[in-house]
């Protein structure tokens, strides 16, 4: 019988973002390894992930209404989302309906932050193996200090992108280190590596944590170089107003690029800038490495371990300006060398083959504990 795996994580109302794409990677690899995969989110299960069965809370709470009256589904969702059911939603992961559903799986993998309500699943005595794949920076390790192997008779473990994210923290929960990879690997590896270093990019949701406004100001001081912002989000109007106010012709917003078009995005750029105040990956860093693009990053997420070069790490805007100028002045063969090194590092450590093997080994290892 195929082992049944449930991936659990909040899906936003647009079905986009780093968590969603990382869940897609895991679903793809697990299905290729013949696991029976389902995905659960409190809401927004309408966004499919490969061939996985998509389930959300309302399906379990009102199964008959949902099945028998498809024309009333929007109404049922509004009722379930209302304040009248707030307590039921808050306590959903202790409900009988959830527990019956969860017990039907061999392993549950949570794609969450330490603040997500879904951490209650890990904390419970549910007799099913549960792993947390942290998708956000852990700011308060005191929340995790209460975790120990005896939470349940079934196995518990953490799945972490890189050791640096948990530096100095210890408890009795086993830790497995598995970084990210990209499903666009084949297309990205076919992009030609060249000596160009004129077009820089930032990629992601337009939100405060990405700190794109700082980099827009940086490129106001670098008029001979270009910056493209790829993404969407609540700060897009603010970014555009900033660009217009500064009168910048070398900075533009290109909008959101669908995952199946990601190779076209990287074909347009020469380097990626990661200026986030916090990350766990990010996925864009892995994509840029596979594409053979130069990367300049703050010391966030797994980027320090990935780049292994302090010259590609910066701490403040002035430092970023200096590094951009230095790299842009390098001879062509040196620029190609840096880019090639990053692609080689991707192939050695973060390829589909490597990460798929690590995921399979993790599941087999947990099942043996």
TrEMBL record:
GO molecular function: glycosyltransferase activity
Cell wall biogenesis/degradation recorded as keyword: no
InterPro entries reported for this sequence: Glyco_trans_1 (IPR001296)
Keywords: Transferase
Domain of life according to the entry: Bacteria
Pfam families recorded: Glycos_transf_1
GO biological process assignments: lipopolysaccharide biosynthetic process
Residues of the signal peptide: none
Residues of the Glycosyl transferase family domain: 192-333
Protein name: Glycosyltransferase involved in cell wall bisynthesis
High-level lineage: Bacteria, Pseudomonadati, Bacteroidota, Cytophagia, Cytophagales
